[in-house]
Specification:
With about 260 residues, the chain is of the alpha/beta class. The chain is built from eight helices and ten strands. The protein binds adenosine-5'-diphosphate and magnesium ion (MG).
């Protein structure tokens, strides 16, 4: 008889329970999220995939407490985050628990690479000695050490995104959110940046949520949540096989056609 190898229980990092978001404008209302339920576990890389306007960025804004849902709850590490949408808790949560990577990098143009990266540590009152140690480590880890004194306009798109990723991880947040992180990059650079996310996931055990409309990008994740018209309509566990891309594409196509 085979001995059963115990599987450690999955630890919940994020749980979204019945979340809706309505944007009320003067003439009409837009329901950007419709009763979204999902659970994200520790160390997972999850891709949120959907067409433009399906509510992906809105969902990330709710998870990072940048904006408040109309309805629903957010659970963090198994506990309801009751105060998360109120200040000063929202800012505290963001600066301690979240790293954010954007499509268009959001670097400060007047600061050099190392000053851009150090911002989260400065916000968290980390000593300058500790900042220097962590900066050197992260600059080397992301292959941008030689560029540390340069300003953003002197860098390529891929280098800028490396700087943005360094800034997102330097305070070692447990949750990393990335909104179309390869949307402004060419094919080869996209590969490099996606490999970096996979490496980070393996090295740090960070939980990564990656928003994309690109099946290729989604194929690097562990699990894909398909988003359509403000709701999760399907999911797919990647098998890390060549067939993943076809599976993701087929599901995405049928969702976009409204078949699911
Ligand atoms: P995605 O990131 O998937 O492209 P978004 O989350 O940005 O989609 O947008 C979802 C829907 O909500 C869209 O119809 C968009 O126009 C609308 N929306 C997003 N943000 C706002 C806002 N601040 N005010 C009004 N409507 C918004
Ligand atoms: Mg978006």
């Amino acid at each position: 008889m085979l001995n059963k190898i115990p599987v450690p229980p999955l630890k919940e990092v994020l749980r979204i329970d019945g979340m809706s978001k309505i944007f009320a404008q003067s003439s009409h209302k837009v329901q950007a999220l419709k009763n979204v339920h999902c659970t994200i576990y520790e160390g997972e890389m999850v891709a949120i995939m959907g067409t433009s306007g399906s509510g992906k960025s809105t969902l990330l804004n709710m998870i990072s407490a940048i904006d408040e849902p109309t309805e629903g709850k957010l659970f963090l590490f198994g506990e309801e985050a009751r105060n998360i949408y109120k200040e000063p808790y929202a800012s505290k949560f963001r600066k301690e628990q979240i790293g954010f990577v954007f499509q268009d990098f959001h670097l400060l143009k007047d600061l050099n690479v190392e000053d851009n990266i150090a911002i989260p540590l400065i916000l968290n009152d980390v000593s300058s000695k500790e900042i220097a140690v962590r900066l050197e480590k992260v600059l080397k880890q992301l292959g941008i050490y030689e560029w540390r004194k340069h300003r953003p306009h002197e860098l390529s798109g891929g280098q800028k995104q490396r700087v943005a990723i360094a800034r997102a991880i330097i305070h070692q947040p447990p949750i990393l959110l990335a909104d179309e992180p390869t949307g402004a990059l060419d094919v080869n650079t996209t590969d490099e940046i996606l490999q970096l996310f996979v490496e980070l996931q393996h090295r740090t055990g960070q939980t990564i949520l990656l928003v994309t409309h690109d099946p290729y990008v989604a194929s690097f994740s562990d699990r894909v949540l398909f988003f359509h018209d403000g709701a999760i309509t399907d999911s797919y566990q990647n098998k890390k096989a060549a067939s993943d891309l076809d599976e993701i594409l087929a599901r995405f196509k049928s969702i976009s056609r409204g078949e699911v």
